[in-house]
Specification:
alpha+beta, five-stranded antiparallel β-sheet, 31 helices, 23 strands, 14% strand, globular, oxidoreductase activity, acting on single donors with incorporation of molecular oxygen, incorporation of two atoms of oxygen, lipid biosynthesis, Lipoxygenase_dom_3
């Protein structure tokens, strides 16, 4: 009890020299009020300790109705702050030495200085009321504490007219930064005052000045208490950049730039890449790093190569747990790719898999890794098993072959993955047959498709094509227009051979899909430029059909990674995040709503520019588009529309649903058993209801939305600067009412959480077995007139394995998608928040959040029930994978499920 009193500040108050028997102002004190003429007098009533400090639940809200004492009765009293700091578990010798030195100097000069700022202004000076500056009392004493979380204390002296604390400033005179999780002040009559910080406090040698943290009480700009107005503006000014200067890793500056850092022009012409964003090639803006120009091109930013970190504002960097998970995954990937890389190094050519059994051995037998005396280090890694300096390096079995080793060969599984796989957002209802290209015929040739009625008529269960169209029975995955302009350039690359594909699906009476035709297109008017492959009738056509499906999967893998995943969930949301930090105060209620959905996104996007989407990076190495990957991505941005990014709008736009107010979600799915859409609508509605409750609480009328200058500045900057190349588009949603705001915020939260999860965390479960989803193809489908047709007929398995990625390409890709599919142990999932009861100071909002969290739990149970329903054949059946990509919760690792709050990987 004595320790608890000390931590919470009670013993300090009892022993304070400012507290006497005649003047008492303590936590939860009660006052009697009497009116005498025009003066109101307050008399403190002393409460027993038992009643005074009794509280059963945390208090989230801070009330403004703090009792005010008449000046003649003002007394000084002491309140206590508990500052929660998170330590890094790993420290090198230099860090330990610096920490020790800071501990010693703290005894002399008191290195961590804090000051409370009231919500009120002193009427005599016109400036905010402030406490006396104070220091952390136990910084040196706890310098050797090894726990991850350490609580420090500090005492503030204020008087009874101070009011409610609304901000706290921190000055760090140490040489080393430290991470503040939160600060709680005990001792005010209003109850505990919480300051959720979750921020690094830099040494004032790196960032001079005071760090400002606001309490958890949200305020619209027009409602900002007088004592906090100047600090609110100062904090925003400190975060904004001006487009100039080199950034230090310790900076907290948010600014915009174009994608001019993907190429490496100093290495030669082969590593030059066009700038994305601007007049020539439209693209969203990214976070500016301020790196100097490259030597050979002043318009290209110089590269920061791994392992050196790229700049993102300091608080956007991975925390230690996430950084360790990511580093371990990369190390694991490096080891996974080590032996294939060595084999390729000494092989006369890039070796193919010798047979499917060699692919299977990656999961069953593994690879032996012999590294010698350093094996003691490797013993710590669970994926390495063995003895005598030989370690068995095995890949986890991908889910696609975990229940049925041959599922990937079946047509129904190929079709099922278009609605329940890693990319379920490309399929559309076929409205016109044959499909027609939208490309310029003068540049790209005839717009007509090679698909004819005779190709599919026998596959429609007795229907005519027109009847199937009118009955909403035909669907298409169409990659013709996005790939065709790049095909000649891609096929000119070494080890690349691809088509622009179209795949037609028919909806069967059982509710499943079956592929009924694949169109393979090349540029030009020659006889081979457009070819249709239909389901097999014999052994030869079976292998041709498997090759055609592999080309479709290759097309799909490229567009999935570069458009649906990277562009639409990573790149297009980044400007909204940058603008939020620049224009929305941390005390703004919309900032508090968006905060968990912005976590880690800028860091993972920077890492992608460094290692994945850069010249000669993983995407160029492993995916069909090669060096033209980001140009293909930018071509897709031309058709990107924010107003169609919400799930209902996207489903309607693709013809996969129609509006229907009688249905639970206001629309009817044309494929009732469409797992991504069915589960997604549950999540979408839960997010939408939560956001609407939140928004209506703070914006009861349209004028409140229109007059919120921070909110309007955030949205305007997101469009006019962050998406500058599309700022004149008429489709941008307006922001004039609470319903407008609800729609915009729901879309952003959906993209950052559920949409990203659906597109990302299935990459290894489905793509980890490369024949199921080859990311690139190296040979075209042979024709009877081709010289290679004889080789194909004589050994079709060998031809197939020579067409998909080589061993080195495959293992490199597998290692990467394994990393991308992995959850870290500190992941925060939808419906979760750090400090869930105090992240907001508004008790009604806290209650609404818990209702949202409960709803997410109910949705998870409903999804689990659907996965056990034998009538839903696209998610339940012999060898059929349950659809879990939109199941909200998950443990760490590559689980194939879980919806993090934000785009974290």
């Amino acid at each position: 009890m004595a320790l608890a009193n000390e931590i919470m500040g009670f013993s300090v108050l009892k022993n304070s020299s400012f507290v006497t028997s005649s003047n008492i102002l303590l936590l939860n004190s009660h006052f009697s009020c009497q009116r005498s003429g025009n003066r109101v007098c307050f008399s403190p009533v002393v409460c027993s300790d038992k009643n005074r400090f009794q509280r059963t639940t945390p208090l989230a809200a801070i009330t403004e109705s703090l009792v005010k004492i008449a000046p003649e009765l003002a007394v000084k009293f002491t309140v206590r702050a508990v500052i929660t700091v998170r330590n890094n578990s790993k420290q090198d010798f230099k860090d330990s030495l610096v920490k020790r030195w800071d501990s010693l100097t703290n005894l002399i000069r008191r290195n961590v200085v804090l000051q409370l700022v009231s919500t009120q202004v002193d009427p005599r000076t016109g400036t905010p009321k402030k406490s006396r500056e104070t220091v952390l009392k136990d910084w040196s004493e706890k310098s050797n504490v090894k726990e991850e979380i350490v609580n420090y204390t500090a005492d503030f002296v204020v008087d009874s007219s101070f009011g409610v604390p609304g901000a706290i400033t921190v000055v760090n005179k140490n040489h080393k930064e430290f991470f503040v999780v939160s600060i709680t002040i005990e001792g005010f009559a209003c109850g505990p005052v919480h300051f959720p910080c979750n921020s690094w406090v830099q040494s004032n040698k790196d960032l001079p000045g005071k760090r400002i943290f606001f309490s958890n009480q949200p305020y619209l700009p027009s409602e900002t208490p007088a004592g906090l107005r100047a600090l609110r503006q100062k904090e925003l000014r400190d975060l904004r950049g001006d487009g100039k200067g080199v950034r230090k890793l310790s900076d907290r500056i948010y600014d915009y730039d174009v994608y001019n850092d993907l190429g490496i022009p100093d290495r030669g012409i082969d590593f030059v890449r066009p700038t994305l964003g601007g007049e020539k090639i439209s693209y969203p803006r990214r976070c500016r790093t301020g790196c100097l120009p490259s030597i050979s091109d002043e318009h290209a930013e110089s590269r920061v190569e791994k392992p050196l970190p790229m700049y993102v504002p300091r608080d956007e960097r991975f925390e230690e747990c996430k950084a360790n998970t990511f580093s371990f995954s990369r190390f694991k990937g490096m080891l996974h790719n080590l032996l294939p890389a060595i084999t390729a190094k000494f092989s006369p050519k890039n070796p193919n898999f010798k047979g499917f059994e060699q692919i299977d051995s990656l999961y069953s037998d593994g690879l032996f890794l012999k590294l010698g005396p350093q094996d003691k280090i490797l013993e710590k890694f669970p994926m390495l098993k063995g003895s005598s300096h030989a370690y068995l390096l095995k890949y986890d079995i991908p889910k696609i072959i975990s229940q049925d080793k041959f599922a990937w060969l079946r047509d129904d599984e190929f079709a099922r993955q278009s609605i329940a796989g890693v990319n379920p957002v490309a399929i559309e209802r076929l409205r016109v047959f044959p499909p027609v290209s939208k490309l310029d015929p003068e540049i790209h040739g005839p717009q007509e498709s090679a698909l004819k009625e005779e190709h599919i008529a026998g596959q429609l269960n007795g229907m005519t094509v027109q009847e199937a169209l009118e009955g909403n029975k035909l669907f298409i995955v169409d990659y013709h227009d996005i790939y065709l302009p790049f095909i000649d350039k891609i096929n000119a690359l070494d080890g690349r051979a691809t088509y622009a594909t179209r795949t037609i699906f028919f909806s069967t009476p059982s509710g499943t899909l079956k592929p009924i035709a694949i169109e393979l297109s090349l540029p030009g008017p020659c006889s081979r430029s457009k070819r249709v492959v239909t389901p097999p009738v014999d052994a030869t056509t079976n292998w041709l059909w498997q090759l055609a499906k592999a080309h479709v999967c290759s097309n799909d893998a490229g567009v999935h990674q570069l458009v649906y995943h990277w562009l639409r969930t990573h790149a297009c949301t980044e400007p909204f995040i940058i603008a939020a930090h620049r224009q929305l105060s941390a005390m703004h209620p919309i900032y508090k709503l968006l905060d968990p959905h912005m976590r880690y996104t800028l860091e993972i996007n920077a890492l992608a520019r460094q290692n994945l989407i850069n010249a000669d990076g993983v995407v160029e190495s492993c995916f069909t588009p090669g060096r033209y990957a980001m140009e293909l991505s930018s071509s897709a941005y031309k058709n990107w529309r924010f107003d169609l990014e919400g799930l209902p709008a996207d489903l309607i736009q693709r013809g996969m649903a129609v509006p229907d107010p009688t249905q639970p979600h206001g629309l009817k799915l044309l494929l009732a058993d469409y797992p991504y859409a069915a589960d997604g609508l549950l999540i979408w509605d839960a997010i939408n209801d939560w956001v609407r409750t939140y928004v209506n609480h703070y914006y009861p009328d349209p004028d409140t939305v229109c007059n919120d200058r921070e909110l309007q500045a955030w949205y305007a900057e997101s469009i006019n600067v962050g998406h500058a190349d599309k700022r004149t588009e008429s489709w941008w949603p307006r922001l004039a009412t609470s319903e407008d705001l609800t729609s915009i915020l729901t879309t952003l939260i959906w993209l950052a959480s559920a949409q990203h999860a659906a597109l990302n965390f299935g990459q290894y479960p489905y793509g980890g077995y490369v024949p199921n989803r080859p990311p690139l193809m190296r040979r075209l489908v042979p024709d009877e007139n081709d010289p290679e047709y004889v080789k194909f007929v004589s050994d079709p398995e060998k031809y197939f394995l020579a067409s998909i990625p080589s061993m080195l390409q495959a293992t490199k890709y597998m290692a990467v998608v394994d990393t991308l599919s992995t959850h870290s142990a500190d992941e925060e999932y939808i419906g979760e928040r750090s400090n869930p009861s105090i992240w907001s100071g508004d008790a009604e909002i806290i209650e609404a959040f818990y209702k949202f969290s409960s709803k997410i739990g109910q949705i998870e149970k409903e999804i689990e029930e659907r996965n056990r329903d034998p009538k839903l054949k696209n998610r339940c059946g012999a060898g059929v994978l349950p659809y879990e990509l939109l199941t909200p919760s998950s443990g760490p690792g590559a689980t194939g499920r879980g919806i993090p709050n934000s785009t974290t990987i």
